[in-house]
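I'm stuck. Please check this protein.
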Amino acid sequence: MVEVKKQHVKIVSIVIALVFVGSVVALALTQSGAGIASAASSSVGVIDAEQVMSQHPKAEEAQKAINQAKEDAQKDFDAKSANMSDQEKQEYFMQTNQRFNQKRQEIVEPLRQSVDEAVKNVASAKGLSVVIDKNAVVYGGQDITQDVLKKLSK
């Protein structure tokens, strides 16, 4: 019968662990190399979303509508909360604020959708596979902000 010494078992275990770790590292290196190659071949666009929204052809109209909704909400709150307790005022304020936020979302959403559509069209025309907000990019990418603004103004 073969006698197995504890020292041999330890050595074999260490060799197996090293082979396993080495194969995991090799696999990770080959996978990251593929990711780098695909990232280099893809085109990335950047856009200043804040600038696009502020210079949207319908931005002024939307801002007026938001201001009007804010005034209406304030008037409604002032009129209806005059005879309420502090607790009731707080609850009604939360409800009024929630209705105002919903109204603001309804006003802004069509602008956002038109910006998204313009970004998709410009990105497609330029062969870009990804468009990222300019604030999230440290370096690189093709700036398409002006192209999107031109597309929106048509």
Q: What stands out?
A: The chain has five helices and three strands. The two ends are 89 Å apart (CA to CA). Strands lie at 44-47, 130-133, 142-143. Residues 43 and 56 are 25 Å apart (CA to CA).
